[in-house]
Amino acid sequence: MFLTLVRRHNDNELFTWADQLLKNFRKNGKNFNAHYLGYGQFTLDQCKNLIDNGKTIVFCFDYTLDKTKKNIVDEIEKNKNAKLLWIGAEKDPFDHPRIKCIFWPADMLLQNKEYSIFDQIIKEPSQKRHWISTSLGIRPHRIYMASLLKGMNLDEHGDLRIKTISRAGNRSPLVSEELARGNNNAPDGIATLENYVKNKWQINETSNISPEAKQGYEKLIQRKWWGSSLFLYSDYMSLGFNQNNNALNFDKNLRHLYKDKTLEVVNETRHRDNHIFVTEKFLNAVVGLNLIIMNGPANTVKLLEELGWNSCRNVINHDYDSIKDPIERCEKSIRLNHKLFSDATYCNRVWEDNFEALSNNSKWARTVLYSNILDNCEKEAKKLA
Fold it and tell me: I need a labelling partner for 213 at 20 to 30 A (CA). Which of 4, 147, 289, 342 fits?
């Protein structure tokens, strides 16, 4: 059925759905070339002749790099009769009249069945360190967020878990070679936050970086990692070679972090002006029954609300979500909600008052989200096919 087939180790349910969708199309006399790609940013550049002069469907699990998007658009332009239906993990990654996009947040759906059987987290909220910021993998927005939290001295009230250098494994395309190698204590050998984010976010103006973030960065890079414990990639891999074994990782390695926390900064994979890409990091926080501040692309909160998530806007100020500037969005996400981060008694009381909503969110993520998204994908695909 698929001309290009790149599977993940645990994608059976989503692969079966995609395969059945194609079979239904062909049963109704609609023919397509089709590709199933489990590792978009790593494999798309290796896929030759992805687009031809007919109709093409691509199912893509992963985010795509800007150069990859450009290559695909260039192929569409070369083939004037080509039409592409992109069913992918980013929200609207293409803006072209002959490319139609359907959003399926595959990393969020990949192990939904495993998440659905978890027991609900039993919490005893901490009066000392009541929030958490996870995701140790280096990204510009995670370094900036950690710098800001540290510079505002908010890490006195929470568990700030972050690495500042990385020497293990293949380099992510979002990380510079210098930063991946490690460079004494300063990423890229430059101990200034302005230079770091200017280069990594590819922005011209950094004047709105706050003094607190600058000071926090200088403290942050004095150590290789911060937090209650260092979580290693080897810990993840010890669960077995099962790509994106996120549910088991949550259950075995992360669950304990949620037992006394009521607030979380979810540091997603992407942030700058990238298309929205939501992963298990968000699911962990929802299943973990936390109030959530999203550190991701603009309008991530809005999209998740449209999918059915209750973001608790009655107690959390998500006005940061619509801000396009990456620096300002990071800054506002914390400053608009400063009391939640700085006052454990207040935050824990807010959490308790909204426990029913958070419990419903957990149920939504484990029992409703999967079918709702795929039903909507199928409905939209039939319209465009």
Answer: 289
Q: What is the pTM of this model?
A: 0.89
- Give the Cα separation of 79 and 75 in Å (integer): 6
The fold adopted by the segment(s) 113-370 is Rossmann fold (3.40.50)
Query: Of all residues in the chain, what percent carry a pLDDT higher than 70?
Result: 86
Closest CA to 121 of 245, 242, 285: 285
What is the per-residue pLDDT across 100-150, written as a single tens digit (0 to 9) for each? 999 999 888 988 888 888 877 889 999 999 999 987 677 889 989 999 999
Residue 14: CB partners within 8 Å, gap ≥ 6? 61, 104, 106, 109, 110
Domain with CATH 3.40.50 in the chain: 4-104, 113-370
- How many CA within 13 A on the CB side of residue 64? 28
